[in-house]
């Protein structure tokens, strides 16, 4: 995709994307929030930086990226219910590139929902499930650690003023941590993603559950409107957030599926919600806190921690009822000093070593708790 633009007003708007060659497209709507999703084969995006951050008329913004292996996606945020009046791709002609064209007009909520349901009834509207095994082998006696690099593909996560993307940094760091865990010979490792593709929050949880993981570690990077806030924070799951900042961060992270054009209602699992009420879930959360404390103790020796290093909130990605889980925000891309560290291979290696030490400490502590020893 070479370029994209929005033209029109509140009565009719057209989305146009320039392509190097015609492609097949699938276009559908999702509600709450209202979005128009365009699925394409995997394409290379060479669009100007910042494009899509603002819209026009019925369109408030749009974003794009890889959604799964072999599949790209454009998600158009719209200001209310719209109907897809026209959708087509024209071949190149008279020196002009191939073009993808989507025309949108206002409609009622009932009509929007009916159109979306009609599409769902005949198509698969969800990201493909992805389990990215590290190739660590099948020694079932070794604890299996799931490492979850946040965001990916169409969902870039936070961005620094200089353009550093969260999704890129956390993927690199996750592989450093995973490599060091494997090098100890004590663990098996599975990643929720190993490339720049998007995995739904529910699928990330399911990776851990289906693999019978002993620990789930989600890796993210923070941002803040001010540039002075910095430091790493470790989060565990709880029904009530520690404070307003933790609640706001959980709300942002939990919107990841919506940003990627996933049908959030279809992704919700009543079964998981029911299981979360049982004793296993409470014990699992307790072990998550034990691991969080180990992370803070060891990571705090190699990098600056936030003034309140352990916080709680209702993160969807931490809701596996039978896998102890924690989410670490490595620092703030909005802070120049943190950004410099986050992209440093030496800093990454040092913090990864401290995380391995924390995992070693956690499993020693877990064994003591289970056995009843002090």
Care to give the gist of this entry?
This protein has 374 residues and is of the alpha/beta class. It has helices spanning 109-122, 166-184, 201-210, 244-254, 256-259, 264-267, 270-275, 279-299, 336-342, 345-371; strands at residues 3-8, 13-19, 26-30, 35-41, 59-68, 71-78, 82-90, 98-106, 132-133, 144-149, 188-191, 215-222, 232-237, 305-313, 325-332.
Can you give a write-up of this model?
- This protein has helices spanning 109-122, 166-184, 201-210, 244-254, 256-259, 264-267, 270-275, 279-299, 336-342, 345-371, and strands at 3-8, 13-19, 26-30, 35-41, 59-68, 71-78, 82-90, 98-106, 132-133, 144-149, 188-191, 215-222, 232-237, 305-313, 325-332.
- The chain is 33% helix and 28% strand.
- It is built from ten helices and 15 strands.
- It is an alpha/beta fold and 374 residues long.
- A seven-stranded mixed beta sheet has the order 9-11-10-12-15-13-14, sandwiched between helices. A four-stranded antiparallel beta sheet has the order 1-2-8-7.
- The protein folds into two domains: 3-122, Immunoglobulin-like (Sandwich); 132-371, 3-Layer(aba) Sandwich (Aminopeptidase).
The proportion of strand residues reads 25-35%
Architecture (CATH level 2) name of the largest domain: 3-Layer(aba) Sandwich
Summing up helix and strand content along with how strands pair, one would put the structural category as alpha/beta
> What is the CATH class name of the largest domain?
Alpha Beta
What percentage of residues falls in helices of 4 or more residues? 25-40%
User: Superfamily at the CATH H level of the largest domain?
Assistant: Zn-dependent exopeptidases
What coarse outline follows from CA principal-axis ratios? Answer: elongated
Question: End-to-end distance, in Å?
Answer: 60 Å
Give me the strand/helix succession. EEEEEEEEHEEHEHEEHHHHHEEHH
Q: Main beta sheet, described?
A: 7 strands, mixed
* Widest sheet, order of strands: 9-11-10-12-15-13-14
CATH topology of the largest domain: Aminopeptidase
């Amino acid at each position: 995709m070479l370029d994209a633009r929005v033209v029109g007003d509140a009565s009719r708007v057209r989305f146009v994307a320039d392509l190097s060659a015609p492609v097949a497209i699938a276009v559908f709507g999702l509600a709450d929030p209202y979005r128009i999703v365009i699925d394409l084969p995997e394409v290379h995006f060479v669009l100007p930086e910042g494009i899509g951050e603002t819209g026009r008329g019925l369109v408030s913004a749009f974003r794009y990226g890889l959604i799964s292996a072999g599949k790209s996606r454009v998600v158009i945020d719209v200001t209310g219910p719209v109907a897809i009046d026209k959708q087509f791709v024209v071949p190149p002609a008279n020196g002009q590139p191939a073009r993808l064209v989507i025309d949108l007009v206002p409609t009622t909520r009932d009509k929007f929902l009916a159109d979306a349901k009609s599409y769902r009834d005949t198509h698969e509207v969800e990201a493909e499930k992805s389990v990215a095994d590290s190739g660590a082998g099948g020694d079932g006696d070794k604890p299996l650690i799931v490492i979850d690099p946040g965001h990916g593909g169409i969902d870039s996560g936070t961005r620094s003023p200089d353009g550093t993307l969260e999704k890129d940094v956390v993927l690199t760091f996750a592989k450093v941590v995973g490599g060091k865990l494997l090098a100890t010979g004590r663990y098996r490792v599975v990643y929720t993603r190993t490339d720049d593709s998007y995995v739904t929050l529910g699928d990330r949880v399911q990776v851990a559950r289906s693999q019978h993981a002993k620990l789930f570690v989600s890796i993210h990077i923070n941002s803040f409107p001010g540039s002075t806030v910095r430091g790493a924070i470790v989060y565990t799951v709880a029904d009530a957030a520690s404070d307003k900042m933790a609640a706001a961060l959980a709300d942002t992270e939990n919107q990841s599926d919506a940003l990627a054009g996933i049908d959030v209602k279809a992704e919700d699992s009543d079964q998981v919600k029911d299981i979360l009420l049982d004793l296993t879930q409470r014990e699992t959360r307790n072990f998550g806190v034990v691991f969080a404390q180990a992370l803070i103790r060891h990571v705090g020796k190699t990098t600056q921690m936030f003034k309140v290093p352990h916080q709680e909130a209702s993160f969807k990605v931490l809701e596996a009822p039978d896998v102890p889980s924690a989410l670490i925000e490595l620092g703030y891309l909005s802070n120049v000093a943190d950004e410099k560290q986050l992209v440093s291979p030496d800093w990454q290696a040092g913090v990864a070593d401290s995380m391995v030490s924390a995992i070693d400490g956690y499993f020693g502590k877990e064994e003591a708790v289970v056995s009843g020893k002090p």
